Every structure is written in C-alpha cells, then in structure tokens.
Amino acid sequence: MAGTRGVKGVAMAGTPGVKATRELSDRGAETRTLILDTALEAFAEAGFRGTSVREIAARCGLTHPALLYHFPTKADLLMAVLSRRDQADGGDGFGDLGAHAMLEHLVATARLNATQRGVVELYATLSAEATGRDHPAHEYFRRRYASLVADLTRGFAELAAGGQLAARTDPSVAARQLVALMDGLQVQWLLDPEVDMAGLLEAYLDTQLA
C-alpha cells in the first residue's frame, strides 16, 4: 500500500519510529524533572498560595500551556513535587524498622536535610500553610504527621517494654515531643545554619533512653 515502508510491523510513513519515540519520551521526562525542581524552589520560597504556575513556567523557559500539558493544575504540580520528594527519601514511613533503627534513621535524615536547604524550606513553608483545610496538601500533611506519630509511638512503646525508655515517659507524648523538636530545629536551622540539627536531636534522644 502506498505510504508504507515495508512489512513485519514497520511503522507507516509520517509516524515516529522507536528511536524518535524514545527521544520524545526522554525530552518529556527531562522537562518534567525541570518543572518539578523549579516548582520545589518556588513553593519553598513563597508557598503554594504565593506561587503562580505562570511564574514557574517562566522560570523553566516554558510557555504556560506547555507546563499545563505536563501538570494540568497547580495542585497536581504540588502533589507531584511532594510525591517525588517522598520517593527520593525512600518513602514517608518506617515500615518494619525496630525502635533503635527508627531513631537512627531520624538522626540520619536530619544530617541529610542539612545539605538540602530547599527541601527543608519546602516542608517548613507548606506544612504551616497546609493547616488550612482548603489547602491541596492539607490531607497529605495530616496523614504524614499522623503516620509519623504512630510509628514513633510504636517505637517508644517497644523501648519501654524492654526497659530502655526513661522512667515516667509516655510513648505517645514522647512521640509528639520528638516531632515538635524536629520541626522546631528545622526552622531554627533555616534561620541560623550553624544549628546542628542532627547533634541536638541525638542529645535529646539520649535523655529519653534508659
């Protein structure tokens, strides 16, 4: 038939071949990565409400419609940024980690965070902004905090059962105190990079363990 290039499934003239399709896919992935990295910086600086999709597109060197092709709404873009960060950090939970491994992971995360200011700014800014029930990340952060507190309560209860938790320490109270400490240290570090988040976290945990 006119317009074909042969048999055995060879593409019709005018349609992209395997190599061209792969190149288009690669360019699309690169564009998405650029958008997500740029959005992370923008959301960290001004929050969700203070950032426009047009501004992010301009920073990327894209048109507004080009960005919307990848992320139809600003809420879609925000959730993609948060999801990508969770994947980069290995997920948002502790899985089956034991108590000591869980606490060591928190200290290691604090140490890592000291090398990625943009990520810390993003979570500090958005977690406060998302307290509003109409914020698109409200449920994300509510679940995130609930999961973290539940995991830490389990960990402290495990330590208490083994006689390794300081006397008169309530596991559920200790869990919320630890989350509050981590959040507070992040804000202090953003204001003063000399604050040793990991070191201070380790010092606090030493006072909680018997």
How would you sum up this structure, described in words?
By secondary structure, the protein is an all-alpha fold. The chain is built from nine helices and no strands. The chain has helices at residues 18-46, 53-60, 64-70, 74-88, 99-113, 117-129, 138-161, 171-191, 197-208. Helix 2 (53-60) packs across helix 3 (64-70), helix 6 packs across helix 8 and helix 8 packs antiparallel against helix 9. The radius of gyration is 23 Å and the shape is elongated. Mean pLDDT is 89; it is low at 1-12.
Q: Give the count of helical stretches.
A: 9
Give the oligomeric state of the chains in this entry, treating copies of one chain as homo and distinct chains as hetero: single chain
Structural class: mainly alpha
Low-confidence stretches: 1-12
- Could you estimate the helical fraction of the residues in percent? 55-70%
Characterize the largest beta sheet: strand count, sense, and whether it forms a barrel: none
What string, H for helix and E for strand, traces the elements in order?
HHHHHHHHH
N-end to C-end Cα span = 82 Å
